[in-house]
Amino acid sequence: MLIDGSMASALVLTISDSASAGKREDLSGPEAGRILREAGFDLHGIEVLPDERAAIESRLRRACEEGLVLVVTTGGTGLSPRDVTPEATLAVVEKVVPGIAEMMRLEGLKNTPRAALSRAVTGIRGSTLIINLPGSIKGVRECLGAVRPILAHAVETLRQSSLGCGE
After folding, report:
1. Do 85 and 73 touch, CB atoms closer than 8 A?
2. pTM of this prediction?
3. d(CA 143, CA 61)
4. Which residue, 86, 89, 16, is CA-closest to 58?
5. Burial readout 143-157 (b: 16 or more C-beta within 10 A, e: otherwise)
6. CA distances from 26 to 17, 59, 90, 92 (A)
7. Which residues fall within 8 angstroms of residue 11, CB to CB, at 6 or more apart?
8. Which of 46, 74, 75, 103 has the fewest beta carbons under 10 Å from its own?
9. Over the chain, what is the mean pLDDT?
10. How far apart are CA 43 and CA 84, in angstroms?
11. Domain ranges of the chain
């Protein structure tokens, strides 16, 4: 995906205590990366972090400072006491974009009522879009599939290169 003549950059952050400790393989992060590459993003990496709010906030802030167009997180969006990804994201973003999270939940609800338990949020900091995804491969596929058609327009608008908005 080209934005202002260059590839739109993306980063995937898997938030998981067990994957960060090497106790399980991260499968959702690579799946998110695959989907983003297929959508035309220049993937800058897939990183695994523990469910630690300060670490998540710090990495999200750094990603925005690095000029990444899109940061996608997987995991940490449920009801468990260790699930803090939405709180970390809300502490970092300057504006919330609720429609994206709503689209993802609506898509998930087509397959399971448990999608209503997702606390995923989406927002922007500067010109970076941050999207929380569930930590399962199935959830990543459903959620990114739901929002993929609007990602190009979203990042173009953030980069102020989209012409004809509202036409």
Report:
1. yes
2. 0.93
3. 23
4. 89
5. bbebbeeebbebbbe
6. 11, 18, 24, 24
7. 43, 44, 45, 46, 47, 63, 68, 70, 71, 72
8. 103
9. 93
10. 24
11. 2-158
